[in-house]
Amino acid sequence: MKTDQDRQIPEQIRQSGPGHLLIAWRDGVESVFPVRELRLACACAHCVDEWTGEYKLDAGSVPEDVRPTRIKAVGRYAIQIDWTDGHGTGIYSFDRLRELADRAEAS
Question: pTM of the predicted model, to two decimals?
Answer without folding.
Answer: 0.88
